[in-house]
Specification:
266 residues, alpha/beta, Rossmann fold, 52% helix
């Protein structure tokens, strides 16, 4: 199924994106790697090529509409089609809402939400012409359960879920599937920046139920094989979202106390 399929992955320089690139390449796919950190992209591309895979690295800031469009254009020019677009690029900002500057707020929405739209807007006509395609947007359990001190990130992921659901309904008649993969905390560089920026508890990762990037990559590959509207890599986090939907009055006090205890120093 994966042999010679063209898979475009944003945020591919580390974490989930890099793990997914390795997994797709092992399965025989052609991978187009996109991220801002060119050196890391080139190293990953060289690694995959040395292992017999086909990969190309394209330095891209998805928050820039022209760069996102150029990513799609170059992928099509090189390989003739795009079978799967994985919008994985994203980051978070921890802190009180009033402490997040307007510039930071705009940037996180530009990457986590507008960047997805820019890439989708460029890729959809390509997929429509070729008669099929699959868009996978990497969201978060924070798109179903809002967390205090993480308002900007949660806002982007709630919006991304709604955007993806609406887009999926629009494209169903074009044989283009839209999926959302919503992991919980993942052992990547995501939390490191927050620990440096705020007075957070050292070793924060130990207080969270961390998932590995490789596990999420395998889940995404499973979603490519069998497209589904919404995928939670963990049954526990699926239950977590369901409980919040049913009992927000019970969950919110627990979330506030739990997040403060896990994140902030005494």
């Amino acid at each position: 199924m994966f042999s010679n399929k063209v898979v475009v992955i944003t945020g591919a320089s580390a974490g989930i994106g890099a793990a997914l690139a390795r997994e797709c390449s092992r399965q025989g796919a052609i991978v187009v790697l996109a991220a801002r950190r060119r050196e890391r992209l080139d190293a990953l591309c060289a690694e995959l090529t040395a292992q017999g895979g086909r990969a190309v690295a394209l330095s891209t800031d998805v928050a820039d509409e022209k760069q996102a469009a150029r990513l799609v254009e170059e992928a099509v020019q090189r390989f003739g089609r795009i079978d799967v677009l994985v919008n994985n690029a994203g980051y978070g900002i921890f802190g009180r809402a009033e402490d997040i500057s307007p510039e930071e707020f705009r940037r996180i929405f530009a990457v986590n939400l507008f960047g997805v739209h820019y890439a989708c807007r460029a890729a959809i006509p390509v997929m429509r012409r070729q008669g099929s395609g699959h868009i996978i947007n990497v969201s978060s359990v924070s798109g179903g359960v809002p967390l205090p001190f993480n308002s900007a990130y949660c806002g982007t992921k709630f919006a991304l879920n709604a955007y993806s659901d609406a887009l999926g309904m629009e494209l169903r008649g074009d044989n283009i599937r839209v999926s959302v993969v919503a992991p919980g905390p993942v052992a990547t560089e995501f939390l490191d920046a927050a620990v440096q920026k705020l007075r957070l508890r050292p070793g924060l990762q130990r207080h969270l139920l961390m998932q590995s990037p490789e596990k999420i990559a395998r889940v995404i590959v499973g979603c490519i094989r069998r497209p589904r509207r919404r995928v939670y890599p963990s049954l526990l986090f699926w239950l977590y979202v369901r409980l919040y939907e049913l009992f927000p009055w019970l969950m919110e006090p627990l979330l506030r106390r739990g997040v403060r205890r896990a994140m902030f120093r005494d």
